Amino acid sequence: MSVEVRHCPPDRFVELLKTAEVAFSEDVSDEHIERVRKVSDPERFVCAVDGDRFVGTGGVFSVRLSVPGGEIPAGGVTWVTVLPSHRRRGILRGMMRLMVDDCHTRNEPLAMLWASQGSIYQRFGYGLGTCDLSLEAETAAARFARDWPSEGSCRLLRAGEGLDLVGPVYEAARAQRSGFLSRTPDWWIGQLPLVDKDAKGGEARRLVVYETDKGPEAYAVYKTKMEWGAQGGNGTVIVEEAIGSTERGTREIWRYLFSIDLMRTLKAGRLPVDHPLLLLAAEPRRLGMRLGDGLWLRILDVPAALEGRTYGIDGHAGGRVALELRDEYCPWNAGRWLVEVTEGRAHVTPAKGEPDLALDANDLGSLFLGGFTATALSRAGRVVELRAGGLAAADRLFHTALAPWCPQEF
Ligand SMILES: CC(C)(COP(=O)(O)OP(=O)(O)OC[C@H]1O[C@@H](n2cnc3c(N)ncnc32)[C@H](O)[C@@H]1OP(=O)(O)O)[C@@H](O)C(=O)NCCC(=O)NCCS
Fold it and tell me: Which residues form the pocket of ligand 1, taking CB atoms under 6 Å from any ligand atom?
């Protein structure tokens, strides 16, 4: 029987998500499905059906992504699976086409995703937009290089409390970095300790907020896993998210996380490559750092995406760069583009003259948030400089003072 790829009937949305359980080799609980349902537009989910049975799933979340100088609408591609019985016959290819075209029709200048394997998505023009740092630290050995007087205090909240405190911290941090997703209250439910979850001890998610007389400046969501060894407490702190809106807040929340009694190890993921912890630690090696891929970006509308951000480290740069873009998957993007920047704002038009750089859609995704410079991309044999000075011009425009950071998988 032939397989058909199409949009999922909204009344079969729960059944669709349950199909993903097999392909992901993970349980998808009813509670998880309910949380996903709340943040989803079921009309944006796609399926592959064999007869009456779902054999492939995919969907797009409607969010806004922070970019230098603001935010732009973006389609968050998610729940991509194909049943093992139906792999390698083009089902993902069909679903991706549907999802990418859906984002484009909705005027989302880019699509983005977290990849289980990056190689799957590069053929569709996704480029590595952010890097992801994870830690497995020995807390006592890594310790902080300098001490500083304590200001403010940390407060542990009960499940269901604190949305009014963490929301503004997240928004303030989001305004400082590109790569953050917008969050509605329903998105927050998935991030914070759950009211109804009967979780005890190490199973329980905890929320701690750092406050000063100026209000909340940081928070962390974490779990602790206790173990006793021959030398006593041998527990692990698992940090799910720790965000500071101020430098002081970031330092203090990590000081709290590093000094929980009876804990020997701290695990954290989804941190930016320039996280202050690397410089706070007296023994950075004991942070047990690992670098991985973060958010993958697919530019769908070159002028809308490039005009949606500001340029230059201060956001006020001027300059121009002409791009020769290859894009077979989204051919409307292909061709020459002139990016003219005045006072940090770009005007993007089809270019007539000779281009400065040649690149493909993946590379534009990597350049877009400033996660990689044009020079770094050229060293990897990706971007090619066609006119001397082209790389330097692009570096001056696209680079950002802080590395982009996406603290949330979706
Ligand atoms: C990854 C997955 C969705 C692929 O689905 P699929 O229907 O077999 O993929 P397709 O047949 O449409 O393949 C499309 C292209 O991707 C390639 N591809 C597919 N799976 C791949 C993989 N795991 N690694 C590298 N490339 C892969 C195919 O070779 C094909 O390339 P081509 O068109 O250039 O020949 C499926 O194997 C799966 O569900 N895996 C487990 C869950 C998962 O990892 N999901 C992704 C979450 S981010």
Answer: 23-24, 80-82, 87-93, 115-117, 119-120, 123
Probe target for ligand 1 pocket from 19, 87, 121, 293, with the most ligand atoms within 8 Å of CB? 87
In the chain, the domains with their CATH numbers are: 3-108 (3.40.630.30), 133-291 (3.40.630.30), 302-397 (3.30.1050.10)
Pair of tokens at residue 349:
């038009």
The question of whether 121 is a catalytic residue gets the answer: yes
Tokens of 371: 């996660």
Q: Which of 45, 54, 61, 121 is catalytic?
A: 121
* Residue 5, both tokens: 């790829």
Ligand 1, residue 94: give the atom nearest the CA.
12
Atom in ligand 1 nearest the alpha carbon of residue 88: 11
Residue-wise pLDDT tens digits, 239-263: 999 999 999 999 999 999 999 999 9
Q: Are strands 263-271 and 235-244 parallel, antiparallel or unpaired?
A: parallel
Residue located via tokens 């998808």: 28
By the 8 A CB rule, do 107 and 95 touch?
no
pLDDT in tens, 133-152: 999 999 999 999 998 888 99
Q: What is the pTM of this model?
A: 0.96
Query: In Å, how far are 11, 17, 77, 114 from 8, measured between CA atoms?
Result: 8, 11, 15, 22
Examine the residue annotation and report whether 372 is marked as an active-site residue of this protein.
Answer: no
Given a contact cutoff of 8 angstroms between Cβ atoms, the answer to whether 325 and 364 are in contact is yes
